[in-house]
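Entry:
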Amino acid sequence: MANKNDNKSMFLYTALIFIVAVLLIIFSFLGQTNMQKNQPQVSESPDKEMSISEKASILSEENTVLLENNNNLKKENQELSEENIQLKSDNESLTQKQSQNDLLLSANGYFTLGNNSMALETLDKVNYNDLSSDQKIIYDNIKNNIN
């Protein structure tokens, strides 16, 4: 029986050594890959020094590209400014048209309720020359119905 216990302990020692060896192999592999990642890249060919004329030509090409980009952006900015002015003008005319519509709606509401004096007073606030053709038709209908 003593011999059996000796075999068990030998087996445990062997298993322990095997596990430690596997762990060392894993740690060394991870350490090696980590070291390779942290190493700076080494170029295969040595960098040659550029002459001043080569540097100047590269800078000139870059400057030309930047100038073209700048000109294109200026043109785009100008177009956007013109579009912005047009949109502001359109917005102003639509706002004016909306206010005329509101006055016509109010006058029609007063007429519908039978308050002809308020309807005429509201129609007097409407600028007939600023109305569109559709609005003029509505204005004329309300005015004729009141009279």
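Residues 2 and 8 are 10 Å apart (CA to CA).
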